[in-house]
Amino acid sequence: RKPAKGPIRNVVTVFDSSLHYFRSGGVESRQVRLKRVVLPEDAHSYARILMHVSLACTEKGCDPWDQVGQIFVHKNGEIIELGRFITPYGVACKPWIIDVTDFKSVLQGNCLIQSYIRAYSAVGWKLSVSFEFLENGPNPYPYQKLTSLWQHDYLLYGDERSAAQLPDTRLQLNPRTRAVAVRHTITGHGQDNADNAAEFARKTHFLILKKAGKPDSTVIKHLLWRSDCDKNPCTFQKGAYAISRAGWCPGQEVRPFSVNLPVSKESFTLGYHFQPYRNQRPYTSKDYVSMPNFLIHSYLVEKSDSLLASAMYRNVACERVEVRGETIQVQIRNTGTETIDKLNLHCSLNGKTFARQFFVESLKPNEAKTFTFKKRLPVSPDKTTALSVLADLEGDENVNDDVVSGISYQYKSSVGAARRAVEKPDHLSDRGSIFRGVVGSGVVRRLKKI
Q1: What's the CA gap between 140 and 450, in Å, rounded?
Q2: Which is nearest to 129 in space by CA: 84, 88, 89?
Q3: What is the pLDDT of residue 324?
């Protein structure tokens, strides 16, 4: 078999042995970590995206309790749970692999990733997280749209004040949608209640699908129960990890409840009904942890072979910079999916700010235009100068292509200011004078300090 052309995988490390812990008495705690990363902006071209999660003990040991861990992405004004895991009892575990292909539409470009471990001791954990983008494999519907359904970090179950169901959500699919699924991640917590709920209570809940104008509903049963905790590969834990639980096992990733739905042109509603249950123990604020409760994050995932309207992102790329006489011109392309109408450009000479200019001009998706700086270059015969241009767009999804740089250019007094150009690394201008360029994130970091 011939090897696949080009790279078949792209790995982006987010957290590398990041410390998470809790300290009482007003001392600083680290249950949450944030990290900004740049992911491939063409996530739709990858067949699968896998998230690798592992826990290691700290210098003080391993946290002794089974606690919730979550990974989120902050995108488009929302905080989206990508995956969930439960820490093991006092031992290290790795790796867990969570398929996050359903989140293609938000795992691209500039992303803020958040980790959370509900650690209740100063011992804590060292957390490592990375994303693996895989090209090989079937990818019939590369484009996606993500819609939030239900988000609850603590939903009481069986209390007289708690609802017996999640609220119905009315939905209308995009006309281009070819497949649609529900990704419903729910785990039960709390104990020492009636039925030892919700952690140790075996309950069947129901996903309800009802089409507009139709009298009947489609009912999909969901048994929220993990009966295979005794087969957990994270063995020799210092606690009762083998006991069955409501949707999770200590020392493992949480498996979402995923259901494919029929594609419909008509609107429909989705609901989720809990199995009837009444806790006889009255609720008090002191019982926050032990009361029956659910942790729920659910999404509707639409898939298509063409770009869905909501799959929008903003990005520009610096493609070419030219020196014509004493004038600096830069070619900018809109590589995003929406029209932009304003742009800040920064020009640097020898690492120092030379010119800044704000342009108000329409640039459509995939359109390229040449922008000219008003400020003129000083004429310095036979002087070698480094020139860089940075495009600064609010909400830019990929800063790696925002800069084009010339390592050097020369004015020749005998012939005047000759035209110089750069399109890609190690490019020589048509006049033969040295003018080498590079586009990359290293330049971004330098220029953004000016």
Answers
A1: 45
A2: 84
A3: 80
